[in-house]
């Protein structure tokens, strides 16, 4: 569970398995980004700004690409470093939200998870992991919106 414990402060009560995932997955994604920025499994993290104009997209990437990658790397690093924390600041919770979103997009691409919410999703470990991350992300959203 995650909930707001005071103005700009959030309490985190997750099990050891969830915390291990939150330590390990951000590092794996960061390494994947560093190893091959053009990998198709990363396409959802860095969608084209100009899908029909390669030159405009390249210009855009030249202007903001490094900053975008750095922002994602910082969020992933914050998640990994604070995975065992019991209290988080609002900035840390925001980083958790952004990092979880990126991890889910990456994992969803690897697993070929589509946008059809009515589609049957297999009940195997990688897809269960995807659902666990979805549940944690939902808790973060609820905590940031004051639901808990």
What would a concise description of this structure say?
The protein has 148 residues and is mostly helical.
Description:
Helix 3 runs antiparallel to helix 4 (125-144). The chain has one domain (2-144). It has a three-stranded antiparallel sheet with strand order 1-2-3. The termini are close together. It is globular and about 50 Å long. A hairpin with a 2-residue loop joins strand 1 (2-6) and strand 2 (9-12). It is mostly helical and 148 residues long. The chain contains four helices and three strands, in the order E-E-H-H-E-H-H. Helix content is 61%, strand content 8%. The protein has helices at 16-35, 54-82, 90-111, 125-144; strands at residues 2-6, 9-12, 87-89.
List the helices and strands and how they pair.
Layout: E1 2-6, E2 9-12, H1 16-35, H2 54-82, E3 87-89, H3 90-111, H4 125-144
Antiparallel strand pairs: 1-2, 2-3
Helix pairs in contact: 1-2, 2-3, 3-4
Task: Write out key terms for the chains shown.
single chain; 148 residues; mainly alpha; three-stranded antiparallel beta sheet; globular
Q: Name the shape in a single word.
A: globular
Parts with pLDDT < 50 across at least 5 consecutive residues:
none
Widest sheet: strand ordering: 1-2-3
Structural class: mainly alpha
Total number of distinct structural domains: 1
Give the topology string: H per helix, E per strand. EEHHEHH
Strand content: 5-15%
Average pLDDT reading: 90
Tally of DSSP helical segments:
4
The value of Rg in angstroms is 16 Å
Share of helical residues: 55-70%
Measured between the Cα atoms of the first and last residue, the distance is: 9 Å
Q: How many distinct beta strands?
A: 3
Largest sheet: 3 strands, antiparallel
């Amino acid at each position: 569970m995650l909930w707001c414990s005071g103005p700009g402060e959030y309490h985190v009560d997750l099990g050891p398995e969830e915390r291990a995932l939150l330590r390990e997955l951000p590092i794996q994604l960061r390494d994947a980004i560093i190893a091959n920025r053009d990998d198709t499994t990363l396409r959802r993290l860095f969608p084209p700004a100009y899908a029909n104009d390669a030159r405009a997209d390249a210009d855009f990437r030249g202007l903001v690409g490094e900053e975008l990658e750095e922002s994602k790397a910082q969020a992933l690093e914050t998640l990994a470093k604070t995975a065992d924390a019991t209290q988080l600041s609002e900035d840390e919770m925001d980083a958790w939200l952004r990092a979880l979103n990126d991890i889910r997009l990456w994992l969803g691409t690897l697993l070929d998870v589509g946008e059809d919410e009515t589609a049957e999703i297999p009940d195997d470990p990688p897809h269960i992991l995807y659902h666990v991350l979805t549940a944690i992300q939902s808790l973060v959203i609820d905590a940031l919106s004051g639901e808990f």
